[in-house]
TrEMBL record:
Protein name: Peptidase M28
Gene Ontology BP terms: proteolysis
Protein species of origin: Streptomyces curacoi
Subunit comment: Monomer.
Protease among keywords: yes
Length: 316
């Protein structure tokens, strides 16, 4: 959904207020400078969906999945890396072993910013072996990719250093993200001022859930949705169930967005969000029907724009 310029400026001001209210910083971090006036761009839904189409094609060409240790995962990683390399990112592939198979994380640094203050945004790129994993988690991977490409298109140069990540083997138990965090030096871990996680952000019967971990990050997302007039709920299904968990355990401020998995939507939630009560937020969760037809465009668009809003607002 596209915010009007005035609403976007209002929203940017809300981030400034949020940061000032919380001492101008992510919890625990040094006070951040006042956010720049630059407002986040609209993330084109068409761009995000083009990535989903590519990930679907990759799964179809590789046994129907993009799972850890299978050809479809590495092909997905190569697709994302090629886009980022072409856009001027400094990319690195981090290799690890899980369940006897080689896994890969993709880390992409945007040149510039204070490398002693790193803002990260990430998503797991692997699917389960039973399907293409388009909502889980092509949706997060594609939205984070398109946001990173928007940073490049804008030539954005925030105060903080931006780093984006696509994790391997999340479905085996947060293996890739945990490997990344465990292999950071204490000094490099301390430089990460926030990690934003996006795992299932386009569910077909969507809810709008905000992680309630770091208060400043949570407020940033809630302010974005307030600007849209869309109510949100605190995410309660996933503490420890996605790639923010290793970062949180290491003391990094974390946050994120989620549109729901196998839990069912209540009548009260239908009243605020629409959709179908008594039906799962994503009835294709971890199933072969998690294809490009398993996406709600409005939810994917709103959450893609929310990612950009938070990346711009928290890195200024
Ligand atoms: N673990 C995720 C799905 C998931 C379930 N609950 C949450 C809460 C927040 C983020 C993700 C999830 C997966 O299956 O990949
Ligand atoms: Ca958009
Ligand atoms: Zn999953
Ligand atoms: Zn997932």
């Amino acid at each position: 959904m596209k915010l009007s310029v005035s609403a976007r400026a209002l929203a940017a001001g809300a981030v400034a207020a949020a940061l000032l209210l919380t001492g101008g910083s992510l919890a625990g971090a040094a006070p951040a400078p006042a956010p720049s006036a630059a407002a986040a761009p609209d993330i084109p839904l068409s761009g995000v969906k083009a990535h989903l189409t590519q990930l679907q094609s990759i799964a179809t060409a590789n046994g129907g999945n993009r799972a850890h240790g299978r050809p479809g995962y590495k092909a997905s990683l190569d697709y994302v890396k090629a886009k980022l390399d072409a856009a001027g990112y400094t990319t690195a592939i981090q290799q690890f072993t899980a369940s006897g198979r080689t896994g890969y994380n993709l880390i992409a640094d945007w040149p510039g910013g204070d490398t002693n203050q790193v803002l990260m945004a990430g998503s797991h790129l692997d699917s389960v072996s039973s399907g293409a994993g388009i909502n889980d988690n092509g949706s997060g991977s594609a939205a984070v990719l398109e946001t990173a490409l928007a940073v490049s298109r804008a030539g954005y140069q925030p105060t903080k250093h931006l780093r984006f990540a696509w994790w391997g083997a999340e479905e085996l138990g947060l293996v890739g993200s945990r490997y990344y965090v465990n292999n950071l030096s204490a000094a490099n871990r301390a430089k990460i001022r926030g990690y934003l996680n996006f795992d299932m952000i386009g569910s077909p019967n969507p809810g709008y859930f905000v992680y309630d971990d770091d208060p400043a990050i949570e407020k940033t997302f809630k302010d974005y949705y307030a600007g849209l007039g869309v109510p949100t709920e605190i995410e309660t299904e996933g503490d420890g169930r996605s790639d923010h968990a290793p970062f949180k355990s290491a003391g990094v401020p974390v946050g994120g967005l989620f549109t729901g998995a196998s839990r069912t939507k209540t009548a009260a939630q239908v009243a605020k969000w629409g959709g179908t009560s008594g039906q799962a937020f994503d009835r294709c969760y971890h199933s072969s029907c998690d294809t490009t037809s398993n996406i709600n465009d409005t939810a994917l668009d709103r959450n893609s724009d929310a990612i950009a809003y938070a990346v711009w607002g928290l890195s200024a």
